[in-house]
Specification:
disordered C terminus, disordered N terminus, 6-stranded antiparallel β-barrel
């Protein structure tokens, strides 16, 4: 009986001292990847721009008087020479009629003087009048001619002056606000309204002088909507020769044909393209950080296994969805874009399926997205 207990004790001790069976390693995590390839990227900066009409005037009267009639309304499109409003010109009309009457009288006197001169010349040839009378007749005819010319000039002057009582559009455009009403007394310094041509506009932006030095000839300038979509693109045609001494900003201008209904004096988002180059880009969601250092998990094949390698990278500017990679990655590298929080350096993985290569996109400049360069 004692022998059986001893044998059982020995067997129990041997069983307690044995190692448990090893656990099977976890299966490789499935990850999605993108293949890094060079694509076109742009160095840009976004600013606040002001739209300026290339033809915009404030309309002032050239005469004084009371507003008698208004022909237009604010926002109305007018053609060149279209009447905008009328100033009471009845007094000038009366003056014109008086000048016309004086011209008619002068013309009658001239006709009489010419007939008298013809008769006097005929009588002088027959010796019936003296040379003094002939000279008097010639002088009278010349005086009548001068009086007629003066009367005609007076009529022309009155006719021109009367035209000023109808204020007309200097060119085709859109009316601004009408600042006067019927019955208002206006003078030569009274603003009546404004006319602006919105078919061709200029956009004015101001950029830091350090950035203006890197501009290339005819650099593109893009007008953006509120969602960042490009509405219009035009090359820069003007760069101010000097910076503003107060702000140290340099004014740039680009002109474009307004096909999207923009208005003069409107503030718009403007993006300036400083340069274009080909560079590697990585999706922003593929970047992890530790103590401020960005990393990417690069999928590699080693000894028949697919592993991930955590590689430090140097990032450039951030576009809409991707970073420009300045250092740390090479063309053809496969980068993991999923399961990043669960990955460890050297861990085996299984590639679920290659995602699309990052597309080229606009990478904003160092001050992109801000309003460092507001238009003046």
């Amino acid at each position: 009986m004692k022998q059986w207990w001893g044998l059982a004790l020995v067997v129990g001790m041997v069983g307690c001292g044995g190692q448990p069976p090893a656990k099977a390693p976890p299966p490789p995590r499935e990850v999605e990847t993108v293949t890094i390839a060079p694509s076109e990227t742009r160095d840009t900066g976004e600013y606040l721009g002001t739209l300026i009409s290339r033809q915009s005037v404030n309309v002032l009267p050239q005469v004084v008087g009371y507003v008698r009639r208004i022909h237009v309304t604010p926002g109305q499109k007018v053609e060149a020479g279209a009447p905008l409003l009328e100033v009471d010109g009845r007094q000038e009309t009366a003056a014109l009629e008086s000048a016309q009457a004086q011209r008619s009288s002068a013309q009658s006197s001239l006709e009489l003087a010419r007939q008298t001169l013809e008769r006097t010349e005929a009588l002088y040839k027959e010796g019936l009048v003296s040379a003094q009378e002939l000279e008097r007749a010639r002088s009278q005819a010349q005086t009548s001619e001068a009086a007629t010319r003066a009367a005609s000039a007076q009529v022309s002057q009155r006719e021109v002056q009367l035209q000023y009582y109808v204020v007309r559009a200097p060119f085709a455009g859109t009316m601004g606000d009408v600042l006067v009403r019927v019955g208002d007394y206006v003078g030569a310094t009274t603003p009546l309204t404004s006319v602006a041509q919105a078919d061709v506009l200029e956009v004015s932006v101001s950029v830091p002088s350090s950035r203006a030095r890197s501009l290339q000839p005819n650099s593109p300038l893009e007008i953006l909507d509120s969602q960042g979509k490009v509405l219009l693109t035009s090359p820069v045609f003007f760069v101010a020769p000097q910076a503003d001494p107060r702000t140290q900003l340099v004014e740039l201008k680009a002109a474009f044909r307004n096909t999207v209904g923009l208005r003069p004096n409107e503030l718009v988002r403007a993006r300036l393209v400083y340069s274009t180059r080909r560079a590697l880009q990585i999706p922003a969601l593929a970047v992890t950080r530790q103590s401020g250092q960005p990393f990417a998990f690069v999928v590699t094949d080693k000894d028949g296994k697919t592993l991930v390698q955590r590689r430090p990278i140097t990032l450039g500017v951030l576009g809409e969805t991707s970073y420009v990679v300045e250092n740390g990655l090479h063309e053809g590298d496969r980068v993991a874009v999923s399961q990043l929080q669960s990955l460890r350096d050297g861990a085996p993985v299984k590639v679920k399926g290659a995602a699309a290569t990052p597309v080229a996109e606009s990478a904003p400049g160092t001050e992109g997205g801000g309003s460092a360069g507001g238009a003046r």
